[in-house]
Design a protein that fits this description.
The complex is a heterodimer.
Chain A: E1 11-15, H1 19-29, E2 34-37, H2 41-50, E3 52-53, E4 56-57, E5 63-65, H3 68-74, E6 75-80, H4 84-94, E7 103-106, E8 111-113, H5 121-124, E9 132-134, H6 135-142, E10 148-152, H7 157-161, E11 166-172, H8 175-185, E12 190-195, H9 198-220, H10 225-245, H11 250-253, H12 256-266, H13 272-281, H14 286-292, H15 298-313, H16 318-328, H17 333-342
Parallel strand pairs in A: 1-2, 1-6, 2-5, 6-7, 7-10, 11-12
Antiparallel strand pairs in A: 3-4, 8-9, 10-11
Helix pairs in contact in A: 4-6, 9-10, 9-12, 9-13, 9-15, 15-16, 16-17
Chain B: H1 21-27, H2 29-47, H3 52-72, H4 82-98, H5 104-126, H6 132-154, H7 168-171, E1 172-176, H8 178-185, E2 189-194, H9 201-211, E3 218-222, H10 229-237, E4 240-243, H11 250-266, E5 270-271, H12 290-305, E6 315-324, H13 330-341, H14 356-368, E7 373-377, E8 387-388, E9 394-395, E10 401-402, E11 409-410, E12 413-414, H15 418-439, E13 441-442, H16 444-459, H17 465-469, E14 477-478, H18 480-499, E15 504-505, H19 513-523, E16 534-535, E17 541-542, H20 546-553
Parallel strand pairs in B: 1-7, 2-5, 2-6, 3-4, 3-5, 13-15
Antiparallel strand pairs in B: 6-7, 8-9, 9-10, 11-12, 14-17, 16-17
Helix pairs in contact in B: 2-5, 2-11, 3-4, 3-5, 4-5, 5-11, 6-10, 6-14, 11-12, 12-15, 13-20, 16-18, 16-19, 16-20
The chains are: A alpha/beta, B alpha/beta.
């Protein structure tokens, strides 16, 4: 394996410099040359001239570009760190320059809809598994790259940026992608685990956002730790249930990317999804909250998709369904909570 | 396009037999076997990671299983000196473990010698024995014999036996990408992967390869078929190498895979039945045996490793489907399938093709009655499942040329990664199954069988499959006009699928629905003693054998047509 000093060593690409992208780019830049792709000219200039993103200092060696072709030519391994709503567009912009020798690892915790052309979720109402794509499935669909991996785990961007100890999971069907992820990311403050169930790991990161919104709502209502304990454990059951239906394996859900991430997000005011729930409980309207947030809270879209999926497959997912009503049908949070307290759950754990 | 049957004899792409890869291979047979043996030895050592205890264990397991096989399951084709050979291996092993005076390296050397003996013997056993004169004779027998029979049957009168009115190509229709396979066979190496429903398939494919003007392909044939003298002759002539399913030990399996991989690297076109065995259920293969398929991926990587980056080092996968109205072995195949899936303990391998007499009888039946076969040749793929153009370039979904070599690069270099290749093989298998469904041709018999079975199933909603199949046949009657309506519904859906290029339809399906149904009823499983579907005196539809009906119905499984019911 070649070391950083080798002159032939290519750079590592990071696409998207949101808070998580920036944190990962910083970690990567400890070992490799990093080229970052951003869409807006101001941000390119900010990175290349002031070496900051949103005013926060980053490694000055990180170089920014707006040119997908340049990035693809300069890098063998590329990290895609863009929100799910923009993911498909960005991948399509990169697709003409990607070749089978590229390795892609993404860090996006959301889902995409895959409906026949011209249809929207409102048209169809109910959806099945084939109508949903995880981000790795989007990559496989839109590009020729097959060696694809994902990054998930309790990785609150702010803490990573501050260099606090943390760990992540790199999941891929290909050992070489996991090893490459470990080689590039591992530092003495950042531990990297491997997992071959990429869909399971992606779903862990996606579905936990639902529970994070609920956790924020409980906190916003001023409820205490008993309620949170209840929510995390019941949320875990729902996560496993939905995750299995979508093709992930139980092992991944109870790992770092599942429970690990769930606990971190449900306890952190740094989490965007948590913030959405918290502000809802304080009486704000969803639209107002989303308008004033700087970055996307993936959980909102996930709830929308999962509600349609649950209906399409005849399953029940009480937390998701009730959150949907709170978000989009003006159900009061107190009423949703009442409903959940009356819901006839009887068995504690039935998935092990 | 898909509708036009290819009805002319192609010029051979390599007129001189000395240029045929398979002839070149048989000329250097000795060296080639040595090469296979060495490469197999190397891969066994890689698997045992150079650990001498693991190697000893593998050798002991192999020895034990081989001795057991010789005792419990001897076949006529087994060589006479088998007992002696394994006896020698045994005494060699015993001596080695008893001898305390040897150093570790000496011991290792001895074990390697034993391993070498075994891989050498296995390579010899597996190697094909292509003899050009036999090939010529066989080709003539097949073409001449078949067309005599055919003309005797179709043209009435005494002189008909000498008539040339019908050729074999009226009976067996070839459709699809025939020009492409010819083009690519002259540039690179072809791996043909057909669906497998009947033992007749290998002879049929052999004939087709020759009609298309391609040099002979080699393929792995079950050693059990070599027990039958008539088959043994045909197989050897067609370049078959032998696959002994009784031998499941690591060393044998590695040698077998190495043989296939080395032959591909040598440039010999090969034929894999990727389902491994005949489809028991009548469904198009959904899960492929990846062992042999992996050798295509491995050979491709090995070619790239050696720097053979141009088209001559490229391996092309060509899916082929064979479509029948009638499969001779259907009754026993479906029995076996049901016994297996129904998890009954009892399972016996029975084979209609067990005697030369039965085969001849079938051939006569086949040619004297009007049951057609069509063979569709699909678009060629690279080992990752991308389509390739006629020049052999891989093309991605957006029509961009890509280099297959890129899939094997890590940091700019071709690297060997067994786990990666395992995933690629799995991916390729999935792509082949997709292509099978696309080039599969729907026959009238498939339509009627599918519709009838689904209607029966709908009427007995509460039963599981096994109970359903146990229904007394005399209780099942489908009213004709309802049956017709449902057939039309299914046909419409199939036409929609055809428009989306998700399936193909045979030309005899172009007429009106009544004629299609009549055609289907007349043809579905037509030579079985009990017919899957018949019209009764009232004009309604009955079945004489539900299992068979289920078998022929399965051909249209995998298109989501069940949703119509």
């Amino acid at each position: 394996m070649t070391s950083k000093n080798s002159s032939k060593e290519k750079s590592v690409g990071v696409v998207g410099m949101g808070s998580f992208g920036t944190a990962i780019a910083n970690i990567l830049s400890e070992k490799s040359k990093v080229i970052a792709y951003v869409r807006r000219t101001e941000v390119v200039d900010e990175i290349n001239q002031k070496h900051t993103v949103e005013g926060e200092l980053i490694n000055p060696e990180i170089f920014a570009t707006q040119d997908p072709e340049y990035l693809c030519k300069s890098c063998n391994t590329i990290f895609f760190m863009v929100p799910s709503s923009a993911f498909q567009d960005v991948i399509r912009a990169f697709s003409p320059f990607l070749y089978p020798y590229h390795l892609i690892i993404h860090g996006t915790k959301g889902l995409c809809l895959n409906l026949p052309q011209g249809k929207t979720l409102e048209d169809v109402g109910k959806i099945n598994r084939e109508d949903i794509l995880t981000m790795s499935e989007v990559i496989m669909k839109e590009t020729v790259v097959v060696r694809v991996g994902c990054l998930a785990g309790p990785n609150l961007a702010r803490e990573l940026y501050l260099g606090q100890p943390a760990a992540t999971v790199v999941a891929s069907k290909y050992n070489e992608v996991i090893l490459e992820g470990q080689r590039l990311l591992r530092t003495d403050r950042f531990q990297v685990y491997g997992n071959s169930d990429i869909v399971g790991v992606e779903l862990s990161g996606v579905l936990k956002n639902i529970i994070a919104i609920a956790a924020g709502a409980l906190a916003g209502m001023g409820l205490g730790e008993n309620a949170k304990g209840l929510l995390i454990s019941r949320g875990m059951v729902e996560l496993v249930y939905l995750g299995n239906a979508l093709g992930g394996s139980l092992k991944s859900f109870i790992g770092l990317a599942g429970i690990g991430d769930l606990v971190a997000t449900c306890n952190s005011t740094l989490s965007r999804n948590y913030t959405v729930g918290f502000r809802l409980a304080k009486g704000e309207k969803l639209d107002d909250i989303l308008d004033t947030m700087e970055e996307v809270a993936e959980g909102v879209n996930t709830i929308k998709l999962m509600k349609a999926f649950v209906e399409g497959t005849g399953k029940r997912a009480p937390i998701t369904e009730n959150l949907y009503k709170v978000l989009f049908e003006d159900l009061k949070i107190e009423e949703a909570l009442q409903y959940l307290m009356k819901y006839p759950f009887s068995v504690d754990v039935d998935f092990l | 396009m898909a509708d036009t049957y290819i009805k002319h004899q192609y010029e051979p792409i390599l007129p001189k037999k000395d240029e045929w890869p398979v002839v070149k291979l048989s000329k250097s047979r000795k060296d080639f076997i040595r090469k296979v043996a060495d490469a197999s030895k190397k891969s066994v050592l890689e698997i045992t990671a150079g650990n001498i205890d693991l190697l000893r264990e593998e050798l002991e397991t192999t020895l034990y299983r081989e001795k057991l096989r010789i005792k419990q399951n001897p076949w006529a084709v087994d060589p006479d000196d088998e007992k002696e050979f394994w006896g020698n291996v045994k005494s060699g092993m015993v001596q080695l473990s008893a001898d305390g005076s040897l150093t570790k390296t000496q011991k290792k050397k001895k074990y390697l010698e034993i391993l070498d003996d075994i891989t050498m013997r296995y390579s010899e056993e597996i190697a094909s024995n292509f003899i050009h004169s036999h090939y010529k004779v066989t080709r003539r027998i097949v073409t001449f014999g078949f067309s005599r029979l055919l003309n005797a049957a179709r043209v009435k009168g005494f002189k008909s036996i000498f008539s040339n009115q019908f050729s074999l190509q009226d009976k067996i229709q070839i459709v699809g990408e025939t020009d492409q396979i010819r083009e690519l066979a002259s540039k690179g190496t072809i791996v043909m992967v057909p669906t497998h429903f009947s033992n007749l398939d290998s002879i049929l494919i052999g004939w087709i390869i020759s009609v298309l003007g391609l040099p002979p392909f080699i393929y792995g044939a079950g050693l059990n078929l070599f027990n039958i003298s008539i088959f043994s002759y045909f197989m050897n002539a067609l370049g078959a190498y032998k696959v002994d399913r009784r031998k499941k030990n690591l060393i044998y399996l590695e040698t077998l895979k190495t043989y296939s991989s080395e032959a591909l690297q040598f440039g010999v076109h090969s034929l894999f039945f990727p389902g491994g065995t005949r489809s028991r259920s009548g469904m198009i293969e959904k899960k492929l045996k990846l062992g042999l398929l992996s050798t295509a991926v491995e050979a491709q990587r090995a070619n790239f490793e050696r720097g053979e980056d141009d088209v001559s080092g490229k391996i092309f996968i060509v899916p082929v489907t064979i479509n029948y109205h009638f499969v001779l072995e259907a009754p026993s195949l479906i029995q076996e399938h049901l016994a297996l899936t129904g998890q009954e303990r009892y399972y016996k391998e029975s084979d209609e093709f067990s005697t030369s007499y039965k085969i001849s009888k079938f051939l006569v039946k086949f040619f004297t009655k009007g049951s057609d076969i069509s063979v569709s040749v699909g678009k060629a793929l690279d080992v990752l499942g991308n389509y390739v153009d006629n020049e052999g370039n891989s093309i991605d979904r957006n029509g961009r040329k890509i280099d297959t070599k890129d899939y094997f690069l890590y940091n700019g270099k071709v690297t060997v990664d067994a786990q990666r290749e395992e995933e690629y093989t799995y991916h390729l298998g999935k792509r082949i199954v997709e292509e099978f469904h696309k080039i599969n041709r729907v026959f009238s018999s498939h339509l009627v069988a599918f519709t009838a079975f689904q209607m029966i199933k709908r009427e007995n909603k509460k039963m599981d499959l096994y109970n359903l199949l146990r229904l007394p046949e005399e209780d099942v009657v489908l009213i004709y006009h309802e049956f017709k309506e449902e057939c039309q519904k299914v046909l419409n859906k199939i036409r929609e699928l055809e428009a989306e290029s998700k399936v193909q339809i045979a030309p005899h399906m172009k007429s009106d629905i009544d004629s299609i149904i009549d055609h289907g009823l007349a043809n579905v499983g037509m030579y079985h003693a009990k017919r899957p579907l018949v019209k009764n005196s009232m004009g309604n539809i009955e079945t004489q054998d539900l299992n068979l009906l289920y078998y022929y119905h399965n051909r249209l499984h995998g298109y989501d047509l069940e949703k119509l019911f």
